[in-house]
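It would be a great kindness if you could assist me with a short task in structural biology. I am sending you one protein, given as its amino acid sequence and as whole-number tokens for its backbone shapes. I would ask you to consider whether the tokens describe a fold that such a sequence might reasonably adopt. The full record is reproduced below for your convenience.
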Amino acid sequence: MSSESQIPIAAKVASRRFARSLAAFYATLFGVTGVHLPFFTVWLKAIGIDATWIGIITAVPPVTRFTVLPLVTAAAERRQMLRGAIVATSYATALGFVLIGTQHQPFLVLAVYALTCCVWTPTIPLTDAYALRGVRQYGLSYGPLRLWGSAAFAVCALVCGFSLRYVAEVDLIWIITTMMVLSAVVALMLRPLGRPAGNAASTGGARKLLRDPAFLAIIVSSALIQGSHGAYYIFASIAWRQAGFSGLTIACLWVLGVIAEIVLFALSPRFTLRSTTLVMIAAASAVARWAITAQDPPLAVLAAVQLGHGLSFGLTQVGIMGLMVHHVPVHVMARAQGYLTACGGIVASTTAIVSGMVYARFGLGVYDMMAAMAAIGGLVMWLSRRRFIAFSSEVGTGSR
């Protein structure tokens, strides 16, 4: 029979196991992104796909985020199977990328990629919902768990960039696919969580969120600030390659940004500012970052600007997750994450298509458009800041 002194020990063990398994999965999940985000467009260009088609193809993931993704997250939540949905989507994604690697015609790549993204894009919001439930259940901080994803992103981007010395650009897809398979295997390690309080089968709470001006401010602000990274994600590697940078240099530039992101996530439990303030600071940082990048700065300045990713992306993520965990009932967290990602998808898909046309005509001038988006996102949060004053503490930030 368990004694009272054994109960907290058991809880600590369960907490550590949850944290380790989640950190490992975040590592593989964003390790995939570390090879996909910088180098998938390089592979597309290597197999002969032009900039306009690249813009259309890279618009697919955002489109699935506001079409298929909310349906998947809602279904997983209704059936109380967040973990099972994460495992299923991970394995389906791995299979999809195997098929993508066999295609070389723009339309066929687009078609297979679209089907694959229908199961791939829900994985991150499902994982974030799973993580925030665990954060509440075990009293953990989000930032230190999420930093392992950023660390893996940096390592995988660096290794993939280095491998370009020995691997042809047309074979990059198989490196991406290998990481997808590894992520699917690690997904099996995720620990089951207890059922949340509240009726997850009811849609009332989820519908109420869409009538809540504060929640709408969260998802719109996040969509605009994170969406302002669109041109960077799609065309940075291509532009740097055309500027004569080696694959390793390109990887190092990506890694500099992610290192700053890792540091920010690690320090986030010590932050004392409100999450609304963190988001506004992140927006201002994004504006400055894209304005400088648009000027085609030399490598040394570009490297310094890349460190701003910790603020423009990382601080936005910490601030938005802080607002979500205290403003959204736990039993509708997956659907709230679905709405957050869907709103981001609408903005990102539009941004991807427009960026392709703007980049083809104006080159780095596309970053001026990104700066304007970030500025509007910060303004939305500033105008809505009083709606969040009632919340006295934020997850993983220690803010008031």
Summary: Residues 6-46 form the longest helix (41 residues). Residues 1-7, 390-400 have pLDDT under 50 and may be disordered. Residues 70 and 338 are 5 Å apart (CA to CA).
